[in-house]
Amino acid sequence: MTKAEIQQVKLRFGIIGNNEALMRAIDIAIQVAPTDLSVLITGESGVGKESFPQIIHQYSRRKHGQYIAVNCGAIPEGTIDSELFGHEKGAFTGAIGERKGYFGEVNGGTIFLDEVGELPLPTQARLLRVLETGEFIKVGSSKVEKTDVRIVAATNVNLTQAIADGRFREDLYYRLNTVPVQVPSLRERGEDVVLLFRKFASDFAEKYRMPAIQLTEDAKQMLVSYTWPGNVRQLKNITEQISIIETNREINAAILKGYLPEQNNAQRLPALFGVKENKSFESEREILYQVLFDMRQDVTELKKLVHDIMAERNGVGTKSVPPATCYVPAAPVVAPVTAGVPTIIHPSVKPASDVDDDIQDTEEYVEESLSLDEVEKEMIRKALEKHHGKRKSAAKDLNISERTLYRKIKEYGLD
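Structure (tokenized):
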């Protein structure tokens, strides 16, 4: 198709824009129209997919036949089969008469199945039979009926993913997708957004009998750089809002920004789904290290306090502090490894098995070394003792690799 012919089609069906992907989609629709091949139109919600089935119908040999658009997502699952294929009288509760159904009504014409990805699986099986043989059976009937219908389907659902999830039949997908037409999103169409805004502004000015709004250069740049999650539908709604509300008919970037949702102005970053938190030995050890680092300053102050108290007890200080009034909390110590995670306990809390053991002096706890290497060495040693020297089991208990454990054993001389 030449550009002039495509331009005529755009004019006839009210399509605005010169984006290359949009022009390609129109070209495919025109070329496939004279055939009876099934067409699947894909694209995000609000991009204007509903114009393409009409192009295909009007440029086909069926243009004098009936055209019906059916929103599959808007029909309840319990009645979708009746709506599409019809039903016999008494087929179900409330079926007080016979119904022909869309496939019976549109015989010789075109039926547009919008949101085809929302069809329930049993209905998908019925639709597949129509595509393959042109046959269908009414609900509550045993009589096979024939129909000659051109099917054009559209969806904003990722049908490949729906097939993987078991929500859409793979054989139906290939029957519908004989000729694919991809409609680009508004954010991919560049300067087309300015042309669309101008067209909508002109339409609303005529509708509400007021001067048309116009954009300044900075507003045009903002319009082009916006992500438009609602596509053309969102742009049309925003243009109508501005046309009605704003008294100043020249719209700059500051005014326009007030009509664009803030969360969509920010740069979109990729989101990671299904990434499980790494709860390895390394991450737990880093948490422990951070705790120990945070404690160092407090421990230093405690050491100084104990030193001052001991000096006063020995008569060195100028001020006497009764021992009974001095409570010096001891620094936490690290207990042996339990299930690969070190546990920090306070020296004043003793396990039941250690109640009768000798109680260390508070000063000794304060003076105890908090070397990170010693903590790690002790954890590895305890793990090896627990598993009687079996390095594989110890590594599993510590949540580290055997190679890392071998290196640490050699480093700390635990052979």
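The radius of gyration is 38 Å. The CA atoms of residues 87 and 275 lie 49 Å apart.
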